[in-house]
Amino acid sequence: MIVSTIGQGILWSVLGLGIYLTYRILDFPDLTTEGSFPLGGAICVTAITNGVSPIVATLLGMIGGMLAGLTTGLLYTKGKIPVILSGILVMSALNSVMLFVMKSPNLSLLNQPKLFSLLGFANLPANFDVVLIGLIIIAIVIACLLGFLNTDLGQAYIATGDNEVMAKSLGIHTDKMKILGLVVSNGLIGLSGALIAQSDGYADINKGIGVIVIGLASIILGELLFGELTMIERFIAIVVGSIIYQLLILAVIKLSFDTTYLKFYSSVILGICLIIPELSRKFGNKKGGATND
User: What are residue 107's phi and psi, to 5 degrees?
Assistant: First the structure.
């Protein structure tokens, strides 16, 4: 169970990295996440059941997420619709898109090839194939993100999030940077959805409900545990935070809590993680004041 949970944590960390690009760098919440995540899974599973290679199907799921992000970006920058409302509009529309793609609310991968079965020849123990492929994918994703963020385009993207007014004064097209961020972010989220769908063995249009909490928990846990970090360390911290979050959920299940309310437990865990830094600051200030007296 622990190996399986670690594998799940690695796959979910791709979602966390995608959310980080908008939530932390651009400093706005993108609710497209709850639509692009199941969309990636729906496209991937439908493609596999129609004879497409799992590798190609996974990439198609990622492209589906990118298109969802592009739509939100255009509504936000060109249509001047607030980013939260833009995300809600796209998220709602994607429910119908997924029904059109799958022709049903859910679709199984029973007896179908999966990306993880490609390592079947290696005679790996149970669930180690998910961990190994997950590590390979996350290494590629982090390498690509670091390469992108260290280019002039990537630095312009970071500058847009840091100070949009200053970025504009430097000649940076901030609207294009926002669109780019939403495209890349939702591409990673769609990729995560495709990977999780293959790991779970099915796609479902309701899989996106609450996934933004899981992604945020990965980010917050990583920041809570490791504090100030370089960019590569922060990405690794998100992966570690995602694994820890999944282990916490496993602990909740093992303690015989009713899994019907798993979303509630997820929100509680995230809420506690968000409160801890503030409590630490308050108690730290009180101790400092007492010492000074």
Answer: -150, 130
Q: Please compute the mean of the pLDDT values over residues 73-92 and round it to a whole number.
A: 93
Note the pLDDT tens digit of each residue in 266-288: 888 888 877 877 777 777 666 55
Give buried/exposed letters for 34-72 (b at 16+ CB in 10 A, else e): bbbbbbbbbbbbbbbbeebebeebbbbbbbbbbbbbbbb
Q: What 3-state class would DSSP assign to 81?
A: coil
List the structure tokens of 260.
Answer: 């019907």
Tokens of 231: 């960019």
Phi-psi region of 27 (alpha: psi -120 to 50; beta: other; left: phi over 0): left
Contact by Cβ (8 Å): 38, 207: yes
* 252, amino acid identity: V
Residues 6+ away with beta carbon under 8 Å from 140: none
Task: Phi first, then psi: give them for residue 220, nearest 5 degrees.
Answer: -65, -45
Alpha helices in the chain (DSSP H): 2-20, 33-49, 54-77, 83-102, 128-149, 152-162, 164-169, 174-200, 211-226, 231-254, 262-292
The string of pLDDT tens digits covering residues 144-179 is 999 999 999 999 999 999 888 999 998 999 999 999
Which amino acid is it at 90?
V
